[in-house]
Amino acid sequence: MSEIQTWTLVFVVLTFSAYIYIAYASRVNTTSGFYVASGGIPAPANGAAIAADWMSAASFISMAGIIGLAGNGYGGSVYLMGWTGGYVLLALLLAPYLRKFGKYTIPDFVGDRYSETARLIAVVAAIVVSFVYVAGQMAGVGLVFTRFLGVDTTLGVIIGMGIVFFYAVLGGMKGITWTQVAQYSVLIVAYLIPAFAVSAKVTGIAVPHIGFGSILDELNGLQADLGLGEYTAAFGSTNMLNMVLITASLMFGTAGLPHVIVRFYTAKSVRAARFSALWALFFISLLYTTAPSVAAFSKLQIIQDIEGTALSETPTWFNTWADVGLITQADGSPISDLAAETTLRYTDVLINNDIIVLASPEIGGLPAPIVGLVAAGGLAAALSTASGLLLVISSSVANDVYFKKINPQATEARQLLVGRIAMAGAIVVAGYLGINPPGFVAQVVALAFGLACASFFPVLVLGIFWKNCTAAGATAGMAVGLLTTMAYMLWTIDIYGNSDGIFGIAETGFGAVGMLINFAVTIAVSQFTTKPSPVMQELVEEIRYPGRTELVAKHAQGEL
Amino acid sequence: MDAQARKEYWRRNLRLMAVLLTIWALVSFGAGILFVEPLNNISMLGFPLGFWFAQQGSIITFVILIAVYVWRMDKLDAEFGIDEYEEEVHHS
User: Fold this and answer.
1) Which of A244, A300, A545 to mutate to test the interface with B (most CBs of B within 10 A)?
2) Rounded to 5, what percent of chain A is helix, strand, coil?
3) Are A311 and A341 in contact (CB under 8 A)?
4) What is the pLDDT of residues A395-438, one digit of tens each?
5) How much is the pTM?
């Protein structure tokens, strides 16, 4: 076992033990504890939990690589702005009002505010979006285990499933929330330490956010020499229209994702929900403002390490990742096919986006314990997101389908049992998808945002801000928004239709257009259909004010 | 709160929202994308300004926007005498 493996093992065992201990200490036995942690989570802790829930394997492992390599610098900004800007919408337009409404899930709000048909569409959308996501997380767990501990992917995923099973089934939302607080701490430390260390080493300025600026000239020059276009130049890889639409899809999609919205129900009060959003974005911004600097530092060092180097003299990080097939020749054939005396060119080598963060401590020449810490951070990011998504699936099945549709007389103990069984079932399916990922998973994850944005966001916002938004309007809007977006995606995505689409709009950006269609249809249909009942209109009025209201409480308890 | 106070509370809430969302759109879609090229001609600490807004500035602004929202809403609540918040978790 190498030094890096030993340190990785130490960090993995330490962090996993902490998660198990926290889960055991916060086990629950009520449905409100299981679904929303009894609404008793203080705002900073809730914020950290939302941040961990939100920042998935994609944010931690892949994002810096996507910015630096795939987006060629500026192009990756869509993810930075899109995945943070959505929180402004959440904080101002949704969180306080949904908290006041006081339910467990998004389908709950949609069903109560509109109709049973609308609830059904919402349940299906929530479950599909969550499963798509969770498969990606489990695959991330497998990647970390394979690379850092040399275990088989299958075994890695099974270990991950076991851990999630233990704390999610036992502790529900309460166990998940407190575990996520711990996971956030692990992942942010693991992300920031190497970033600060590499910045100090490369630029002499320890703060990467500032050091980042001092290498841009050099990086621009290197990229221009290689014929890649400057790193900071606008619209090199994506045109202006698509930059706007993709950013918008990610922003509005973020504000419509069920596993994020549900976290505002776990806040103590309306005021705490506002503060939770603030803490969440603050914690997220620590990673998101650092990611672009990690991308730039890594890109600079990778070009310097590779360009013009003989294959026999490549650095260790290059060799280890080439061995596992994540660095290949540009046509995908293995590096080992090349003769040892070949002189490498950056443009002849294909580097997988996912290795940038995991390899950054090695690329920067940092010691083994830090490499192990980064591995533990990657696992924390993947596991925390997986558990939040699994809870959405479990509560959708147990609350929205079983309790609301199949057996409304079910006792609390019975609902809890169904919730736990649904959770266990979801973990097994997620694990299976993680071990045998369908080829299109990576693309579908990006598309999930478009779907969430085209289906949920308009219905939630109009449901809150417009008393006369009708059930028929919302149902039609959701259905049309979802269907047009899906149809456009199938039409344009490489593996299906592979068309250029309309005005060259990328499939990942179409969600924003679908959202506008949804808004238009909902508003138009609402003009001609039965207005909501007077009680419902009064209720929508009541959720605007954060104080206690009898009407809202009665409604939420099912007395109206 | 009586009907008059409610109307006033909601109106001020909406106005705050409109101001903050305008800034939100200006820094991200405006400075980060639509006007990125002219802004890139200005340099700050080595960063072309448009690029900085797209990768750092917009995120920092978002955090500040929510902070201002939370702070102003707290003040608004205090002004309208809302000191008791809904704390029940409702069962459906």
Assistant:
1) A545
2) 75, 0, 20
3) yes
4) 888 887 888 778 888 888 888 888 888 888 888 888 888 787 66
5) 0.90
